[in-house]
Amino acid sequence: MSDLFAELRRTDFARLDAGGHTYLDYTGSGLYAESQLTEHLELLRGGVFGNPHSVNPTSAAATELVVRARDAVLSFFRADPEEYEAIFTPNATGALRLVGEAYPFRSGDRFLLTFDNHNSVNGIREFARARGADTTYVPSVAPELRVDEELLARYLAGVAGEHHNLFAFPAQSNFSGVHHPLGWIEQAHAHGWHVLVDAAAFVPTNRLDLSAVHPDFVPVSFYKMFGWPTGVGALVARREALAVLERPWFSGGTIVAAFVQREYYQSAPGAAHFEDGTVNFLALPAVEIGLRYLERIGIDAIHAHVETLGAALLEVLGGLRHSGGAPAATVYGPRDTDRRGATVAFNFLHPDGRIVDERFVDRVATQHSISLRTGCFCNPGAGEVAFTISRETLVGGEFGEGMTLDDYVRAIGLPSGGAVRASLGLASNAADIERFAAFAAEFVDLAEVPGDLPPRSGC
Ligand SMILES: Cc1ncc(COP(=O)(O)O)c(C=O)c1O
Questions:
Q1: Is the beta carbon of 93 within 6 A of some atom in ligand 1?
Q2: What 3-state DSSP class applies to 22?
Q3: Which of 27, 99, 150, 189 has the fewest CB atoms inside 10 Å of its own CB, making it the most exposed?
Q4: pTM value surpassing 0.85
Q5: Ligand 1 pocket check for 200: Cβ under 6 Å
């Protein structure tokens, strides 16, 4: 099997080595295979496709592509079409917004979510608040950054009466790579919760089998799975759960009919009710092509491939020592491959234990043509626990008018502006890890960083 990955690296991903790239940001974005582009372009070159909202021949051709892409999404996730619907969105965030803005939160309802969540999930709390529902966060616990499951069980059980309650967590943390238990879905269902599983960081390298687990709402972004196309995601959702959503408006595409002399509209059935305007119909065939590409390699094989490389990456970081013997790196989250993906958050350390400024890490990475991520990765909750930042610190230190992020980092005494994240994907290989090790060695015995680092623009 490793031969297959080596072959793909030589062919479909030849541009990585041709350009001297060490790409370690697959949780930011997956990479497309060259063959995906060829297949997509051939299809576009060979056909004439009109707006699918019509019935003419070119429209029918486009509709067929949309239907095929929708079927491919459900089939890839083994979702029974009787139970699930695949709604196309601009990205995972678009899918999350659909849920947030339409979930029928009322006063007394609950929105429960893990600290460890992407900001696009955190943002749902604003919809909850506007509609009078209570938001509760379940903390992660350092150093593993997993959830206190006893506390979670208490929160899930602590509901009574007729309410709409929504529980949200990521299947894989985009910060620490932690896999949160999918067993929570049934545990929450047993207490009447709707469950949103953010699968954006999970599905590129893990099997999500919706015949085995039955979350209500699953947002994904396809570029994270196979690089191309950007601008297309999906909300895979249980039909029963979709039926409780209350869309705040209608638009072209979401209705069967609307009138102007009478303020009435009839919603379109199924996915169309949630797809505002025209779907990205020329990009959608690339979703089917990308899913087929992953199927051909096998998601389980991809999982095993990145797990092996992830172990090597963790070993490099765990073994990195200054000449005096002090650790030169610290990993946030699990130190081994148990119940985690190949997304690793860490910081380099100076010999006296201080964190190496992540802006300097960026600079050295660029010198090595390494692409990784620095900052908080849109997941402030995981970072707050990793850096042991207390609620009091945050409440006490307002992000005042005119402050820059650097002012704020100083004001609340943060050790740095964030962490460093390396994440692996199907085109990663052992040579990437070796180049990462050579880069990491640059931080051994590093006493100080230069004083000319650029200001931080955002977390
Ligand atoms: C876990 C998770 N959820 C949601 C998102 C948001 O994805 P997008 O920016 O494609 O909407 C990301 C992106 O990094 C993510 O990692």
A1: yes
A2: strand
A3: 150
A4: yes
A5: yes
- Tell me which residue has its CA closest to atom 2 in ligand 1: 200
Which residue numbers are catalytic? 378
**Residue 74 in contact with ligand 1 by CB distance below 6 A:** no
CA-202 nearest atom, ligand 1: 1
DSSP summary character for residue 450: -
Per-residue confidence in pLDDT tens, the chain, 459 aa: 579 999 999 999 999 999 999 999 999 999 999 999 999 999 999 999 999 989 999 999 999 999 999 999 999 999 999 999 999 999 999 999 999 999 999 999 999 999 999 999 999 999 999 999 999 999 999 999 999 999 999 999 999 888 999 999 999 999 999 999 999 999 999 999 999 999 999 999 999 999 999 999 999 999 999 999 999 999 999 999 999 999 999 999 999 999 999 999 999 999 999 999 999 999 999 999 999 999 999 999 999 999 999 999 999 999 999 999 999 999 999 999 999 999 999 999 999 999 999 999 999 999 999 999 998 788 888 888 888 887 777 776 677 777 777 777 777 777 777 899 999 999 999 999 999 999 999 999 999 999 999 988 776
3-state secondary structure of 56: coil
The amino acid occupying position 227 is G
374 touches 346 (CB < 8 A)? no
Q: Which residue out of 88, 97, 174 has the highest number of ligand 1 atoms within 8 Å of its CB and is therefore the one to mutate?
A: 174
User: Within 10 A of 413 (CB to CB), how many other CB atoms are there?
Assistant: 9
Q: Is 428 in the pocket of ligand 1 (CB under 6 A)?
A: no
DSSP character string of 289-323:
HHHHHHHHH-HHHHHHHHHHHHHHHHHHHHH-B-T
201 lines ligand 1 (CB under 6 A): yes
Query: Cβ neighbours of residue 314 under 8 Å, at least 6 residues apart?
Result: 331, 335, 336, 337, 344
Amino acid symbol at 241: A
H or E stretch covering 2:
helix 2-10
What separation in Å is there between the alpha carbon of 29 and the centre of ligand 1?
Answer: 9
